[in-house]
Amino acid sequence: MIKGFYSAVTGMLVNSNREQVIAHNIANMQTPGFKQVLSRVEDWVDTGVEFSPGNLLRDRNVKYVGQLGLGAMSGPETVDFTQGSLQSTGNLTDMAIEGDGFFRVKTPDGMRYTRDGRFIRDAQNNLVTTEGYNVLDSNNKPIKLPEGDLGVSPEGALTVNGAAAGNLGLSIFKDPKTELTRDTGNLFTGPAQSTGTGQPKVAQSMLEMSNANATRLMTEMVEVARSYEAAQKMVQNQDELLGKTIASLGRVG
Asked: How many domains does the chain have?
C-alpha cells in the first residue's frame, strides 16, 4: 500500500515539473531565437517482489517474481535546437542564422552564444543585444560601427555605406545538445572554440522565430493536467485505504 503512495506522489511531482517546462515554452512562443526545452520522465526506484505460496513462517518458501517500479522522476532537461521559421523585419540590424550556428556575445559572466539576432546600435554605435550585451566579431572583440547604412553578407562580413566594418563572430557546434548549456534568457554557454565544420549563413533584416509549436504545447498541457489529476486521485484512494486498514487493525486489537 505504501508503494502505491510512492507511485502516485512521484506522478504528481513529475507532472508538476512538466507543467512548468511547458509553461516556460508557451511564455516564449513569440521570443525570437528561442529554443524550446524538452522534459523527460524516467523510472524512480525499482524493488524486488517475492511471493510465498504457503505459510511464510512455516515453509520459508519464497519465490522471486520480478521488479516492481515505485514511480517516476524527472530526467535531465534537453534543448530542441531545430531551426524556427525566419521572419522579415526590415530592420538592418536584425539578423538570423540559416541552418547551424550561433552569434557570439559578451556578457558580464563571459562569452555566450545565442540565436536571437535582435541587435541594435547603442549610444556609442556599438552593436548590442536587446539586453545591452556587446555582439562580438570574429576576433571576439565588441563590434563598433561607423555611422551609416549597415550591410551584412551571408558569411557575416559587415559593411557600412559599402566600406568594410568587420566580421560577425559566428560559432558552429557538432552536437549543440551535449556541448551547450542553457544560461539566462536566450543565451547558452559552451566551448570557447567551434567544434563543428561549415560556415553559418546570416540573413540580414530577418529574425528566427521560436521553434515552440503552440498546438503541440497546448495538447501537452492538457495531457499533463489530466495525468496530475489522476495521480492526485490515486493518492486520495491510497490514503482512504490506509485509513481503513489502520482502523481495522485497531478494532482487532
From this structure: 2
